Structures are given as structure tokens and as C-alpha cells.
Amino acid sequence: MNLGLIGLPQVGKKTVFQLLTGLSAEKAPTKDGLTHGIATVRDPRVDALSAMFKPKRTKYAEIELELPPDIQPDNSRSAAWLEPIRRTDALIHVVRAFESDQVYHILNSVDPARDVETVELEFLFADLDMTEKRLERLNKEARIKPTPQKEKEKEIIERCHAQLEAEQPLRNLEFTEEEMKVIRSLQFLTLKPLITVINVGEDFQAEVKAHEELAAKLTARGDTVVFLSAAIEEELSELEESEREGFMADLGLTEPAAHRLSRSAYECLGLISFFTCGPDEVRAWSLTKGSTAPEAAGRIHTDLERGFIRAETISYDELVKAGSEKAAKEAKLYKLNGKDYIVKDGDVIEIRFNV
Question: Which of 20, 132, 235, 263 matches a 20 to 30 Å C-alpha distance to 44?
Fold first, then answer.
């Protein structure tokens, strides 16, 4: 699963890409019109478990990040920038809220609310165009050879079309799993989960307050909103650990915004983390929400899924409260779970298997 990092030109997308992946966009690999990178999900639970187990190595969960071409408003709905964005699973929309005489704006002024609306309308019109073309094809096929499946698809597409004509994104509609199977291949832009990153200037707290109304509006419609100052984040990334904490304290920050963004992006994809812990490694593993214990075992190694017997689990909170693995086992806090167990976010797991 991958996230597309999108936005108008000169909004800070390349800086956010580098903050999340550690790679400059110019040096990252490219394929099919997309720049590719791997983002580390900075989960503080991994740090706490690493402090407890003192392993030889520590590994965070990771997500794929892709940087498509800039969005160019008012171009044809079949413009080159649309197709790469369609191929992503979820979107991080970077919106400019910072002022700078050195950085031009494609719409000649800084107005984040307008820019959010501009991009949303581009996506709405592109999806509307797709529904119209699909309905035209379905109507033609129905005249030649009608089927119940085509009629069902037509009903779903007509519902999508009505939503888009009302200038409402498809992510605000509810679809059953069967309905999603019908429309998934169409890769509707307004159906993708969305994080809006409001890229503010260096007076962080004041600018967050100035854009509270926009953030509330976006949250109410279902977006995840993250405030970030790319300028501050770049400074933080260049500081030593000892200097970083003092700098963040002066700004009223408890952690880099890029860390919060990485976790929001992870959740946006419908992923949870489970942990494996030992003297060699403490590691966070990504897993689709609702997955079973054998599926979690398969994330570690295919042999573990094939020979799965039981999963010994304890929640992160219980383990931390106990203070150590030994204390947790003495208190009989670990539980044995079978093949039907649904893994929860924060489970610490040891797989019992036989191949």
C-alpha cells in the first residue's frame, strides 16, 4: 500500500518527502511518473520497548511514499498529473499557508482554504468525468446484453455520479465491501483516504491558531489534518538530539511534526502495528486492521504462517505497566490465542509454530 504526496507547485511537497523518507526528491528513484521513497513510522511505543529489552537493533514500521507530478489546475481532466495520483492508495495533500517573497504561488496569493477547494474541485470533476464515461459504456452494454451484474454496477455508479454532481467527495458515501469490489478498479480520487498537511511559517503556534477554522472544517468532513512547518522541521532535522528537545520546547512542540504525520499516514492506510521483542531485535510490523494471528505470523515469515500453532500475546500497555517481560509472565498476563484471533494494535506477539 502506498501514499501519494500531492499538492500545487511550490507548497513544500519535496521538503515533506525528504522529512519522511530521509531522501531528497532529486536523488530518490523514479518509475512511471512517480518518485518513490520509504517513510519510517516513528512510533514512541517502539522506543519504550527498545528501552525495556535493550536489543541489538530496533526497527520501526515503514510505509511506501510516492511523489507524483504537481497538480496543475484548470488543465484537461485527462492531464498527465492525474493518472499517477490515481495509482496511489491514499493521499497526503500539502497546502501552503506560509508567506514568502522568494517562493511564487501559482494562484498569485497565499490562501490555504482556496487551495484546498481548488484541488478538491479538480478531483471532483475528474471523478465526475469518469462516472459519465462509465455510465455511457454501461448503457451501451445493457442494450446489447443486459446482466444483473451490469445493472448493479450501474446503480452504484449512478449513486457516485449524483454525489459528485452535488460537489461532495465519494469518501463521504458508505459502500459495502461488495460495492467496493465493483468500483475499486476505477480508482476514484475523491474516494481515497486523505490527510491535509497545512504547511505554516515559523511562528508555529500563532499560525496554527490562525487556521483553526479551516482545520475544523476539514476534520468535520472526514479529513485528517496535520499542521507542519517545513522550515522548522528542516531546522530540527539538522540539530543534535540534545539541542532538538530545547528547540521544540521553545516552540511548544513535544515531537517533530513529521513524526505525527508518519503515524497519521499509517493509520490513513488502515494499518495497525504489532511488535516482536527480544535480545536481538525489537520490531514493529505493519498489518491491515482486522487481520488474524496467522496473517500476522506470515508478515514475519511465510513458514510461521504455514506452521502456525498459537500466538502468545500481551498488549503493549499491559507489558509496560508490568515493567518487564519477566514480571508480565510471572503475573500470567500473556495469553495463548488460536487461528481465529484478531490482532489488535499494540499487541506484542510471539508465534509458536511447527514446520
Answer: 235
Which has the closest alpha carbon to 120: 223, 211, 227, 249? 223
pTM listed for this prediction: 0.88
- How far apart are the C-alpha atoms of 128 and 240, rounded to whole Å? 50
Task: Reply yes or no on whether the pLDDT at 75 is more than 80.
Answer: no
Q: How many CA atoms, within 13 angstroms, populate the side-chain half-sphere of residue 303?
A: 4
Domains in the chain with CATH codes: 290-353 (3.10.20.30)
| pLDDT of 76 higher than 60 | no
Q: What backbone phi and psi angles, to 5 degrees, belong to 238?
A: -95, -10
Pairing of strands 57-59, 34-40: unpaired
The Cα 174–Cα 176 span in angstroms is 7
The Cα–Cα gap between 277 and 58 comes to 9
End-to-end CA distance of the chain: give it in Å, rounded.
30
At 267-324, the pLDDT tens digits run 989 999 999 999 999 999 999 999 999 999 999 999 999 999 999 999 999 999 999 9
Q: Across the chain, which distance is largest between two alpha carbons, in Å?
A: 72
CB 229 within 8 A of CB 201: yes
